[in-house]
Design goal:
76% helix; 224 residues; single chain
Length: 224
Amino acid sequence: MTRRGSQVWAVLVLTALGAALRFPTLDRQSFWLDELVTVALLRQGLTDVLAEIPRTEATPYLYYVVAWAWGSLFGLGEVGLRSLSAVGGTATIPVAYGAGAVLVSRRAGVVAAALVAVNPFLVWYSQEARSYALLALLGAGTVLAFGLALRGDRRGLAAWSVLSALAIATHYFAAFLVAAEALWLLLRLRPSRAAVVLASLLPAGALLAHMPLVLAQRDNAEAV
């Protein structure tokens, strides 16, 4: 087997391990307080969900829209709703490999995938009916696309723009990661600076569009 083939198998095994750590115990504990807020929201129609988020949450809309659709298909029980986070957490493993491989080496990618697969915090958030697992997946996606963009891949830059906007629409803290990536792209890709500025408009616009929601949620800090 070639070295590349063995690394692919390693990522597949690590992804299976990550899934084994996340899925079987989704119903081991009942929903806790913040998850109950999510469940109460998602029991309503989508229009009502969107109307309630400014009053009850401290994060943007995207996770709740996705979770509402997911819950409509798989139910709002512990397994049904938490499985969305488990899928996101498991999918983060190969994405982390891709990010490490692009930015450093394939071996580093395998190490990154291993760390994501067994990290206790990431396992925990993969079993929680909140937005954090989706944020981790999209954040890892921005790092992968960022690495591709550094190599001069225009499609990577376009993917970075879209994933960055989606990450910000999932959790406001994503703006710190996206801003650092945007700054580094501007510094490193001087001949393509105009393209980087153009790509940065979408995540910047997403953050700006959420400003009214941020202001409406300013007293909901306990719901972060």
